[in-house]
Amino acid sequence: MFSAPGVARPVYREIVDVLGDLKTVDIRTRFDQLGRTFAERGVTFAFGGEERPFPLDLIPRIIAASEWSLLSAGIQQRVKALEAFLDDVYGLGECLDDGLIPRHVVTSSPHFRRASTGIVPRFAPRITVSGVDIIRDEDGNLRVLEDNVRIPSGISYVIENRRAMTQSFGSLFTNYRVHPVDEYPARLLRALRLSAPEGVRDPTVVVLTPGVHNAAYFEHVLLARLMGVELVEGSDLVVVGNKVNMRTTQGERPVHVVYRRVDDEWLDPLHFRPDSVVGVAGLVNAARAKTVTIANAIGNGVADDKLIYTYVPDLIRYFLNEEPLLANVESYRLDEVAALHEVLEHLERYVVKPVDGSGGHGIVIGPQADEETLVDLRATLLANPRGYIAQRTVALSTVPTFVDDQLLARHVDLRPFAINDGKEVWVLPGGLTRVALPQGALVVNSSRGGGSKDTWVLADVVPAHPTSPTDAEPSAALDVAPLQEQRGARQFGPGPQSGSDQ
Amino acid sequence: MNRGMLARLAELIYWTGRYVERADDTSRIVDAYIHRISEDPFGDADVTCRSLFATLGMGVDATSRVTIETVLDRLVFDPESPSAITGAMLAAFENARRVREVISSEMWVCLNATRNELNAQRVESFRVGPASYLKFIRERSALFAGLTDATISHDETWWYLVLGRSLERIDMTARLLQGRLLAAEHSPDWLTLLRAAGAMESYLRSSVRRSDPEAIAAFLLLDREFPRSAYHSLAVADHCLDQLTKASTHLDIVNEARRTIHTTQTRLEYMDANALLKNLAEILKLLETTSATANDQITSSYFRQVVATTWMSEVGT
């Protein structure tokens, strides 16, 4: 938000003006109202076994139209390249034959699934839903921090944050033309239906959740509800003769597309972990038999392996014959001896991440780590260099955030969500801005004490008399005749005058 | 309505209905007993409390004294036991949490907000007495019932909720009267029972002009119009099962549960109200087994139909 210390970027000027007019106590009141709304609606995530509301900050993150179009094109490009890469890895393997990526790097990825080889989804993309994490570096450039193409989560907060903001801070929207985010569920449903197996005219789509104890359960519920499809658990599905059915009160009903929010390794006890009780026995075989589509596809984790990440710019050039629009953060492949030695030499300068991690777990930030952590890390890296990458420590950009009744600078990142329907990649104009609430903290994951902000992508045309886009409720489209012409006089029961004896 | 809902969801919804009703009814019964104890300082609280535990089908330590505190600990505030009021509310919440996508947001927010407030209400009740907590539970149950009726389509989901509510009500109305059989002189008197069932005013307005035990028992068991009477609850359960069977495309479902409910309903319908007290034990037993048997039959015909995975040879790559 600040282009230089204390100087707000131009797009934030209106917000600063509006908030400047409010008293601290008024801001506090609305901030508390946001918190209460979330607690009552149960917008929570599981934090160490406890349900907590996901803190929403009241200052939105604002992205100008011009910047968004670059970002959106960069994400589309990246998703297309990763899609082509996955198709190749689980198919012909040409990029491996051509030596673009060493074969052992792919096969040693913890998320490379041999079971997925040979499942060729003819109509379906492998990456139906993706969440590419974006940061802004010290020079103001947007960079990709990591790719998430397995089961990226966070879209529910994007939707709920917007709903809460329009309710509590509607006045902030009046001076901006903000893209709505409520199109997402319909887009997702459309993409899932398009990915149905060949010959199914009216496919049944379900959302598969590990269950109520999953940290993202709230999101699974919200998506199922907004798409109008069933939310199923593994025990609701049964595979009969390579066909997937769900158990209903009136017998079994066929299922054609499974939007699964269960990790690969728990998905099918026959192929992966045999002790999984949240999976469906026989699901992988049904996918092979092409009676059901699993979205996202099995084995996508090889594409968001953080070592593969270092090759993505090359993948874009190789598969798309284009220059990457979004740069990576400078990274070091620790399975290359020279890089490993350089990093070990100056561990305190780098951020070191496990290649298959998520949720911020296992990340060591060199400049903030104590000596003991670095000693342990050195041993870990020497023992398993394939398991980690190192990145330059980026001072993430900051946005003012309401902490302890003041506006303080806090670091943020951004996760835009993209949906691939097999023909085109659509990027939701908005996304999840996560903010690290402790001062100076660089890890923004909710499981590490992060909060979030509503993210506003501005439309490029500003009308002469700006109106809030949230006024355009669906009901406004209905043809409503003027009240006095349509309505007769209202009816009333016997009042005191009718039975009165005065 | 003709496609069937997920069996797991149907079961959770049915139990959400049951647990909210149980929290409501238990708070009514406990309220009546506490009223009885405080009204009669010379009575034996130990015996009264024991009869309350027996009424609710719960064992209690035979050697130590049972007091109001025991009742509050185990029947009111115990968060673990679904037979206690707090536990039943929490169980309803846990069930509802897993069916959020099929009930209305308002119903969910109602149970979530109730759960969030349970502790504050408990602390408040230490200051002003347990009646405030019991009243809170009854009000939240009423709110939930109102939202159930007004904020979701009266489709399969709704019928399962109402079915659960009705079966629980049959069981709890029988238990409410049970106390009169177990330890009549230590249990709430007939008028208190009427009040506990929220039936006092309806009873007084009904055509009955007597206040003898026979007439009160007849009202709570046989009245055609009072929504908490056993007969009325049976009729509602019967109607729910009728609707659910109609919704079914599987004509081969033999509706055993409906036969169970309907048989008992018919027996009550033609029962001689004047011989009611003489046969009270038998009738209460009948209601108890009807509720339990119907529950098992509903579970096996709607929620737990057995489907086995069948295997095919693996598709080659």
Write the layout of secondary structure elements.
The complex is a heterodimer of chains A (502) and B (317).
Chain A: E1 2-4, E2 7-8, H1 13-21, H2 24-41, E3 44-47, E4 50-53, E5 56-63, H3 65-89, H4 94-97, H5 103-107, E6 129-131, E7 133-136, E8 142-146, H6 155-168, H7 170-173, H8 184-194, E9 205-208, H9 217-227, E10 230-232, E11 237-240, E12 243-248, E13 251-254, E14 257-260, H10 264-267, H11 283-288, E15 293-295, H12 306-309, H13 312-320, E16 327-328, E17 331-333, H14 337-345, E18 350-354, E19 364-365, H15 371-383, E20 388-392, E21 398-403, E22 406-415, E23 417-420, E24 425-427, E25 432-436, E26 450-457, H16 483-486
Parallel strand pairs in A: 5-26, 8-16, 9-10, 9-14, 14-15
Antiparallel strand pairs in A: 1-2, 3-4, 6-23, 7-8, 11-12, 12-13, 17-20, 18-19, 18-20, 21-22, 22-25, 23-24, 25-26
Chain B: H1 7-39, H2 45-55, H3 68-76, H4 85-97, H5 105-128, H6 130-151, H7 156-182, H8 190-196, H9 200-205, H10 213-222, H11 230-247, H12 256-269, H13 280-303
Helix pairs in contact in B: 1-2, 1-3, 1-4, 1-6, 1-7, 1-8, 2-3, 2-7, 4-5, 5-6, 7-11, 7-13, 11-12, 12-13
- Major sheet attributes of chain B: none
Low-pLDDT sequence parts of chain A: 463-485, 498-502
Described by the principal axes of the CA atoms, the overall outline of chain A is: globular
Strand % of chain B is under 5%
Gyration radius of chain B (Cα, Å) is 21 Å
List the uncertain runs of chain B. none
| Overall helicity of chain B | 55-70%
Q: What does the largest sheet of chain A look like?
A: 5 strands, mixed
Oligomer: heterodimer
